[in-house]
Design brief:
The protein is of the alpha+beta class and 148 residues long. The chain contains four helices and seven strands, in the order E-H-H-E-E-E-H-E-H-E-E. The protein has one domain: Gcn5-related N-acetyltransferase (GNAT) (Aminopeptidase, 3-Layer(aba) Sandwich), CATH 3.40.630. Strands 1-2-3-4-5-7-6 form a seven-stranded mixed beta sheet. Strand 4, helix 3 and strand 5 form a beta-alpha-beta unit. The termini are far apart.
């Protein structure tokens, strides 16, 4: 498994992965994914092996010192095999390079597996946003201090 930066030819595959990783109301449209990636200050990493893309992560600068993880998607067959950890390592290394003080993300209130994954990486729940998703579900905002 290798991590590389996004290439425009990846967009259809990233969209397809997002559609299977998240239900309607949480998954993004192809144009939303493209917009997140093309936003100034954004980065996208792709995890792939010889058989294709297993997952990806999109992040960007929310401000000069704060980064936002927009999405991390890992195909079901690749979960618990280090793909998510490796993608998170990449975004956290980028945050250090960018001299960010904090990274944050949102995760569905009922996605306990994701919450445990982030907590193991020292992300803490800092806020709950009611009706965050279009299906009415709330989200937890989880954040990690990168440097003080």
């Amino acid at each position: 498994m290798k991590i590389r930066t996004y290439k425009p030819a990846d967009l259809p595959t990233l969209y397809a992965i997002d559609q299977v990783c998240f239900p309607p109301g949480i998954s993004y449209s192809k144009s939303e994914i493209a917009r997140f990636i093309s936003h100034r200050g954004s980065r996208a990493w792709v995890a792939e092996d010889a058989n294709g893309i297993a997952g990806f992560l999109i992040a960007g600068k929310a401000s000069r010192e704060v980064g936002h993880i927009v999405t991390i998607d890992v195909l079901a067959g690749w979960r618990r095999k280090g793909v998510g950890r490796t993608l998170m390592d990449a975004v956290e290394a980028w945050a250090v390079e960018q001299r960010l003080r904090m990274l944050y993300l949102e995760t569905a209130e009922d996605n306990h597996a994701a919450q445990r994954f982030y907590q193991r990486r020292n992300y803490i729940k800092i806020d709950e946003i009611e009706r965050y998703y279009s299906d009415g579900k709330a989200a937890w905002v989880m954040a990690k201090t990168i440097r003080d």
